[in-house]
Amino acid sequence: MDLLEMNAVQAVHGSTSQPNQPPLKLMVIGARKVGKTALIKKFVDGEFPVSNPTTKEERCRKSITLENQKYTLEITDTGSGDTWEDQTIKEAHGFLLVYDLCKKSTFEKIAELHDKIHKADAEAAVFVVGNKLDRSDEREVSTEDGSKEAERLGCKFGEATGKTNVEWVFLTVVKLVVQRAIKRRELSSSSRDMGVTSEGGADSWFETLALCLGIDSIVKQ
């Protein structure tokens, strides 16, 4: 693990967000039956689900503290469908892009799904996850291939199961979102100092994200 990953694992759970702080929105996207619901349920409830996979889009929330900052996460489980509303993607702040490392066909959809995210947000924080690591004896996608594809797409990469590495995966994508927001704030401040203004839509998206993250207090640390 690199420093970013180790910092993410050191997060403390069970905290509440600041009053009136909107949730940080994450989406879990992938082909059917790659284990999206299992990852979410393990992270949110601490239990490996034994029920049938989600067949429709669902949302759940979890409060965390990461590096002394409190956040409420709103996690969207896209279920078994392969299509999502563009507006839902545009409203998300970070993404987990999941494939089943035992089914190469799900890995081959990663680039297509990433392209859809990229069209909505060219600078999105995306974490590519090779899921079902506990069945590595049935592996069809090597760790090297997964890592290379994620690197090609400009994404962070890791492997997990519904029982292991789940916390690290979710907290790392939150960390990526925070880093992106801090960078955006610094660029925005620099542009204003130079008398340059950005489009209203972009400013609106960032101000919403800044509220979710308490970004001013983060930058001041």
From TrEMBL:
One of its GO terms (biological process) is signal transduction. SUPFAM superfamilies: P-loop containing nucleoside triphosphate hydrolases. Transmembrane segments: none annotated. SMART domains: RAB, RAS, RHO. Pfam families: Ras (PF00071). Gene3D superfamilies: P-loop containing nucleotide triphosphate hydrolases. PROSITE patterns: RAB (PS51419), RAS (PS51421). GO terms for cellular component: membrane. GO terms for molecular function: GTP binding; GTPase activity. The keyword GTP-binding applies. PANTHER family: RAS, DI-RAS, AND RHEB FAMILY MEMBERS OF SMALL GTPASE SUPERFAMILY (PTHR24070). This is P-loop containing nucleoside triphosphate hydrolase protein. It comes from Trematosphaeria pertusa.
